Amino acid sequence: MKSLSTQEKSWIMYDWANSAYSMTITSTILPIYFKMVASNGNMSSSDSTALWGYTISLSTLVVSLLAPVLGTIADYKGFKKKFFTTFFSIGVISTIALALAPSDNPYLLLILYGFCVLGFSGGNIFYDAFLVDVTTNDRMDKVSSYGFAMGYIGSTIPFIGCMAIVLLTQQSLLPISLTLACKLTFLITAIWWGLFTFPLLKNVKQNYYIEQEPHAISNAFKRLGHTFKDIRNYKPIFIFLIAYFFYIDGVDTIIGMSTSYGTDLGISMSALLIILLLTQFVAFPFTILYGKLAKKWGTKKLLYVGVITYICICCYGYFIKDVLDFWILAMAVGSAQGGIQAISRSYFAKLVPKEKSNEFFGFYNIFGKFAAIMGPFLVAVVTQLTGRTNNGIISLIFLFIIGFITLLFVPNVDSTTLKPEHISNLDT
Asked: Residue 424: pLDDT band by 50, 70, 90 thresholds?
């Protein structure tokens, strides 16, 4: 971290900040808490898993529809940080609302979680696009990887405190109910997320932009139309987005529904929390390793490694039966999830024109978010139809295989931003 600039460090700190949300709200305590509330309301395990998947799908659909429009507007000078701040605030406020909501209404929890997803995912559109503002092409793999890596470590600090509150309550060592303990973890997460976002708000600036002009919104829609044409003209971008659509779908689905899967297998809350905590520690060095190897071997080869790892994870996930199997599965996920996300982000950032980064990252996110609709929906439908979560997990293998095959046609890139006239000189 010593070799990083102030802007790079400040940008990385947002991964440190919002990963607490990813750990507590997306992956662990909220899904388990929702399962508990749903069970108390006599909702079946398969139905609650399905509703969780449908909620993720619906909320990401909203973000997906907004992403390209807001991204186009955000390329105007001064708009990127305003949009980032708005969505970040929605996420933090909704997380606080989870702590204040009554614990006897699973449907209200789903609504609030939908707003959390909206704020978190919307903020990430502009956060990712800031990557072109804070660093240079030859440092993007490193900075992006450090962001995800620090996110994994940063998420563990508040999570350890949250986990201690839940486990001590379960052991009757804290004189509070398990419901109150879970609500306290939501409040802690919101405070952490808000506090460590301030370095980005203070130090990161929009260095690449389009000057403001009259009728900015209507002109933004016109520019959005041109962006569609640009994506068709920039073949590497278009091919990569198709590959990304499929493989990141599987990645996000496994992350978002892992605790529901573990709960359906009969794994206790305490075991799930410990497993997922150690997954973060595994992810930290592997994410940095992905960044270093990408510089040595090339970004595309590391993407292959990540996708193949997830194909193996899906196959193994179909056969798991006990806690040990889930341990092995979680460690395998930890070895790949941060790396494939970081390398995908930096690879795309190298491809796009910097002054139009929000537009193109709007499409990057719309492909990612629409993919996140399909994956949970696929798992939800297959799980409901068969009554077995294992079948839902194995169905994801098709997404990774399609993504891998499409990735074969994506060109190798160096640190130079691609232009249409360069495409014919690239090797696939």
From this structure: very low
Q: Are the CB atoms for 342 and 144 separated by under 8 Å?
A: yes
- One-letter amino acid identity for 345? R
Residue closest to 374 by CA, chosen among 404, 357, 395: 395
CA 52 centroid distance within chain: 16
Structure tokens at 10: 């400040």
Q: How far apart are CA 244 and CA 292, in angstroms?
A: 21
Q: Contact 347/339 with Cβ under 8 angstroms?
A: no
Q: What is the pLDDT of residue 423?
A: 39
Ordered domains of the chain (ranges, CATH): 6-206+216-425 (1.20.1250.20)
Given a contact cutoff of 8 angstroms between Cβ atoms, the answer to whether 217 and 69 are in contact is no
Q: Assess whether pLDDT exceeds 90 at residue 14.
A: yes
Q: What is the pLDDT of residues 222-261, one digit of tens each?
A: 777 776 666 667 778 888 888 998 998 888 778 766 766 6
Instruction: Tell me the H-state helices in 28-105.
Output: 29-40, 45-74, 79-100
Phi-psi region for residue 274, left (φ > 0), alpha (ψ -120 to 50) or beta? alpha
Going by the DSSP 8-state scheme, the letter that residue 77 receives in this structure is: T
- Neighbour tally for 85: CB within 10 Å: 15
Q: Give the residue with greater pLDDT, 93 vs 49.
A: 93
103/81 Cα distance (integer angstroms): 35
User: Which conformational region is residue 25 in: left (phi greater than 0), alpha (psi within -120 to 50 degrees), or beta?
Assistant: alpha
CA-closest candidate to residue 56, choices 379, 376, 370:
376
